[in-house]
Amino acid sequence: MEAFFPNATHRQILSEPLRLTETDEVYDVDVTLHGGGISGQAGAVRMGIARSLVETDPDLRPALKAAGFSPATPARRSRRSTASRRHARLRSTPSVVRSAFENAASEI
Known about the structure:
The protein is mainly α. The protein is built from five helices and no strands. α1 (8-20) packs parallel to α2. The termini are far apart.
């Protein structure tokens, strides 16, 4: 671990979820990283370890969530309403056509 994360702070970030749950001697962690900086990678590994611990033992979730290691559930992408597309078309049309289109839309 020292070869990949020479900074002691980064190594501490990596091991926080395991120390908090007192499972640092129970699990061996094997991680593949790609891209980003060292700090970002350390944070990503910490989150991955926390998620793996919760998946293995759901009873650890409250402790990890209280410490801030378990982020909220991933947000779903919201659906774009059809009204926003219609308004985008209205902005790009000439004003004569726009007024006719708005009158037709209001009658519906």
